[in-house]
Queue: 2 jobs
Job 1
Amino acid sequence: MLLESREKVANVPADYRFATLSDSIVRNAQPEIYALLERYVTTFSKPGHQVKSLYLWSQSPGTGKTTTASALLNEYIIAAVNSHISDGVRPPEQPAYFLDVNELQTLYNEFARPHVPAEIAERSASQYYAKIQAAKKAMFTVFDDIGVRTATDGFRGDLHNIINERVANNRPSIYTSNLAIEEMTHVFDARLFDRMRDQCQAVHFAGESQRGKR
């Protein structure tokens, strides 16, 4: 019940809910990456250890970035729940959160554009800021598809604020993108690039699309 409730509020896409590294469909296609990630998830349970952020990228779609990021988020929830229970403490209500950056930008456009009906703008704005707060405050956040090239200054500023707060408070994040981390300087300003790169390891996903291979 504790795991289920934390999964529900984590906003993990339905296709990836409860998926872990061991049962990921990407595992066989990316054996070297998954060997690295098996070691990485052990740091989730090390007391006092600062968990590193990861930047998962590939130019090709469908190579398993989102699947893998979701599995890592689920692994973090499991580790957080188990460690708190073993310490006799109630686990946090929202230890991790999955932020779909494209969805967030769609919500922004729905209330920031002129002539949007008030009821639509109010609903979209409410959802938008709720997602921002969740992404800021979660112990572990996935930013899925962060390489959006058409971001407005307002949306870009909000995204920078989320990342800035997470870095300032040493909260680990997983980023997925179709751009190499160096190319993010062309998408966001230098400050955001520096924040993303800080204590962040880039992991390149090569190979063919894994979509449809369930």
Note: The first strand starts at residue 53 and ends at 57.
Job 2
Amino acid sequence: MTGEIVEALRNGMFRIQLDNGHETLGYTAGKMRRFRIRMNPGDRVRIELSAYDLGRGRIVYRMRPGDERPE
């Protein structure tokens, strides 16, 4: 799923507005943290939702401006 970062929270968490209108919490994936990929409010991201808790997900990709890759 894709969405937009609305707010940066503590401990590497972000509030994300999904394209379908829902709002969820997301955290950065390990490789994004390892390579120090920074995210700011307003960035478009791809997120994988947890099968057990649809209110949380893992951010796996930060899209560049004008980049809309198919999922």
Note: Residues 2-62 form a domain with the OB fold (Dihydrolipoamide Acetyltransferase, E2P) fold (CATH 2.40.50.140).
